Amino acid sequence: MRVPHARVLLALALVSLDAGGARAQPAGPPPATPEAPAVPQPSPDPTNFEGIWQPDFVMPLVNAGEGTSGALATVDRKPLPYNDRGATIFQHRMRMEQAGTPIANSVSQYLPAIPVYQLDLFLGQMGVVQDRKNVVILFEDGSNWLIHLDRGHPAALAPSYKGDSVGHFEGATLVVDSIGFNTKTWLDSVGSPHTAKLHLTTRISKIEGGRRLEFLTTYEDPDLYTAPFTVRRTASYRPDGQLLESEIENLRSENNANLICEDN
Predict the structure, then answer these.
(1) What is the C-alpha to C-alpha distance for residues 255 and 140, in angstroms, rounded to an integer?
(2) Residue 68 to residues 143, 190, 195: CA-CA distances in angstroms?
(3) Roughly how many angstroms between the first and final C-alpha of the chain, as a whole number?
(4) What is the DSSP string of the chain?
(5) pLDDT at 9 over 50
(6) What residue spans define the domains of the chain?
(7) What is the pLDDT of residues 128-181, one digit of tens each?
(8) pLDDT for the residue 57
(9) Residue range 195-238, pLDDT digits in tens
(10) CA-only gyration radius of the chain, Å
């Protein structure tokens, strides 16, 4: 009777030794941590603007006396240099707004805007694609800014909402010349006017190590302004950005019931 009992004790001892040996084995290396995907970087080429960019907010000018906010902010932070005619048109639009009968501009009717003005609307991100012939800036509302690099302005240019833009590089700066605008658009959200003589020169450059685009636009319209003026805008690189669909609230009839259209 003692022999089977001894065998049981021996078996238990062997099991215990095996378990202890297993516990004594050195631990294996931990599983490898998967590498994070590389974050896209803007092109190191200073003349390559391709990628997704987010227009940066620029504090608009506020004129407490006229009750306005949203006028273009010039680089010297001064009011726009309207002449008498330009001031009369602007003040009429402001009075109509304050009376609750705002005048409809192209944006409120979901019609095209002057392309550089798109940077002030903050309608999401924008994408830039380019080749040797064109630079195209795509906005999330479906509009675009087409800049021709391979031609000048057509001799017979029909006025349009977006005008005609041609560009060339001066070093790392893209210089864009834009003319041919109709008079159905505004320069800003508060009603700064322009005529068909509007001439824009925009200098686009990479700054801050290529992670920001700078747009310096000089406005000239001798029929409504006493002197040219320059507006600075920027846009920040968004490595994981993508262009999304947008729904424009202004398309809804209840948002446009009190708008008044000007004759242009």
Answers:
(1) 21
(2) 27, 7, 22
(3) 117
(4) -HHHHHHHHHHHHHHHHHHHHHHHSPPPPPPPPPPPPPPP---S-TT---EEEEEPP-PPEEETTTTEEEE--BTT-----B-HHHHHHHHHHHHHHHTT-PEE-TGGGT----GGGHHHH--S-EEEEE-SSEEEEEETTS-EEEEESS----SS---BSS-EEEEEEETTEEEEEEE-B-SS--SSTT-----TT-EEEEEEEEETTTTEEEEEEEEE-TTTBSS-EEEEEEEEE-TT--------GGGSGGGSTT-EEPP-
(5) no
(6) 51-63+70-247
(7) 999 999 999 999 888 999 999 999 999 999 999 999 999 999 999 999 999 999
(8) 84
(9) 999 999 999 999 999 999 999 999 999 999 999 999 999 999 99
(10) 31
pLDDT of residue 69: 55
| For residues 108-119, average pLDDT | 85
At 34, list the tokens: 């998967």
Structure tokens at 227: 């002197």
**β-strand 164-170 against 173-179: which pairing, if any?**
antiparallel
Give the CATH architecture of domain 51-63+70-247.
Beta Barrel (2.40)
Beta carbons of 142 and 62 less than 8 angstroms apart = no
If you count them, how many residues does the chain have?
A: 264
Model confidence at 109: pLDDT above 60: yes
Q: How many CA atoms lie within 13 A of 2 on its CB side?
A: 0
